[in-house]
Amino acid sequence: MIKIGVLGSTKGTDLQAIINAINLKTLKANISVVISNKSKSFILKRAKLNNIPYCFISAKNKQRAEFDSEITTTLVKHGVELILLIGFMRVLSSGFCQKWKNKIINVHPSLLPKYAGGVDTNVHEKVLKNKDKETGCTIHFVTEKVDKGPIIIQKKCFVKKKDTVNTLKSRVQKLEGEALIKAIKLLS
């Protein structure tokens, strides 16, 4: 059973899909720890509600490498084998990426390489503005170059004429959870 560490800064909606799959026994994994750089992020509350170890690590007044070193210490302490970035709103240091090479995956709310570097609703806004016919999500390995790591899985959906940023985000998030679960199974 693979031991997962989750880094997140936001709500952790995709984390819930993973928790549900573990509880339903459709995913053989253990979430060892959830770490956030935002003390009031809902991802920490989600971890607490599901009896998952969690911690807040402040990045304030720290160099990137120092902050990442603290994260590594916590991940090692919890025996983490695979790191998931779920709404983690920080760029990781080169040293961190090298230490955890091929053990960090990110979920991105577009079909990379489209909208690389974009986050959350601004990606969906661009999809609608550019009248894209399809969108989706990408699960990829994390490297020093943001959103440039090798792609593991992409899941697609059509963009509907009546879509809003929120309806599109909701549909893509459903795909993100499915794609993350599939990626974890592939990497286990």
Describe the secondary structure blueprint for this structure:
Blueprint lengths: L1 E7 L4 H11 L5 E8 L5 H8 L4 E3 L7 H14 L4 E4 L8 H6 L4 E5 L11 H10 L4 E8 L9 E8 L6 H23 L1
Parallel strand pairs: 1-2, 1-4, 2-3, 4-5
Antiparallel strand pairs: 5-6, 6-7
Helix pairs in contact: 1-6, 5-6
Can you walk through the features of this model?
With 188 residues, this protein is an alpha/beta fold. The protein has one domain: Formyl transferase, N-terminal domain (Rossmann fold, 3-Layer(aba) Sandwich). It contains 6 helices and 7 strands. The chain has helices at 13-23, 42-49, 64-77, 94-99, 120-129, 165-187; strands at residues 2-8, 29-36, 54-56, 82-85, 104-108, 134-141, 151-158. A 7-stranded mixed beta sheet has the order 3-2-1-4-5-6-7, sandwiched between helices. Helix 1 (13-23) crosses helix 6 (165-187) and helix 5 packs across helix 6. The protein is globular. The N and C termini lie close together (7 Å).
